[in-house]
Amino acid sequence: MTQPAVSQYIKALESEIGTQLIDRSHKKVRLTTAGRIVYEHAKEMIGHHETMHHLIHELFHEPKGTLAIGASYTFGEYVLPRIMAPLRERFPHIQPTITISNTKEIAEKVEKMELDIGIVEGDINRELLQMEHFAEDYMRIVASSNHSFTEKLPVTVSDLENEIWITRELGSGTREATERMFTTIGIDPAHRMEFGSTQVIKESVEAGLGVSLVSLWALRKELSMNTLFIVDVPEGYVKRAFSTLLRKKPMQTKNTLVFKELLHEMVKE
């Protein structure tokens, strides 16, 4: 479309709605508050339109097409890869794309319909999302197998408070769980380091940099190889749930539903 045609359409839309949608008083054109409302709802309308076509197509055909999956780091890096191979084998015409980020960002992307389904840890309370727990996750304190804690048992709460703690960034479900455990056992460590990846945290702990709270799903290899050991202290753990996030819609696409069913099946195994 030409620029004059775009301007004409916008003016017609403004006339229909009865208010200005674009602020033209500055050198840069920008949306007014009303314009942002129209823009967000227009994106939702486009998303519903696309979903409608998918649902009609799926009434008569096998699952096919794109599937945008989002997962928080723990599940995305250590569990999701084991599910993608069976998905490909059973539904070869589904074309998945995967986004791995922290819990907060995954929830935002599902809410904006940039993702079909999200998999996160922790609780999300958003009006436009529906959350469903599907698996339990246990988090434990870990240290290097060469750490002095291995020779000093039992480890006390005071010992933990004086340690360097390696944590995830704000917005991460793992960070939220760590802060919750600090409150439960009554510590406020002065020495902390913050990393944006569970894998980097595990390698740093292995190297003797400090201790951390990590999901058992992410520790299977290190525990089997005895490079990390679990620091066992009373209440020094967190039990949480992995959950799916879906945008509240009248219906979900068949691609999303078959993936969700496979997810439940594989986790139970």
Question: What descriptive keywords fit this protein?
Answer:
seven-stranded mixed sheet; 269 residues; 42% helix; two-stranded antiparallel sheet; single chain; alpha/beta
Structural account:
The longest helix has 26 residues, at 33-58. The protein has helices spanning 3-17, 33-58, 73-78, 80-90, 103-111, 157-161, 173-185, 198-206, 220-224, 254-268; strands spanning 22-23, 30-31, 65-71, 94-100, 117-121, 129-144, 165-167, 192-194, 212-215, 228-230, 237-247. The chain has ten helices and eleven strands.
Rough outline: globular
The average pLDDT value, as a whole number, equals 89
Q: What is the straight-line distance between the termini?
A: 54 Å
Unreliable segments of 5+ consecutive residues: none
Query: Can you write the helix and strand succession as a string?
Result: HEEHEHHEHEEHEHEHEHEEH
The quaternary structure here is single chain
Binned, the helix content reads 40-55%
Structural class: alpha/beta
How many helical elements? 10
Strand segment count: 11
Report on the biggest sheet. 7 strands, mixed
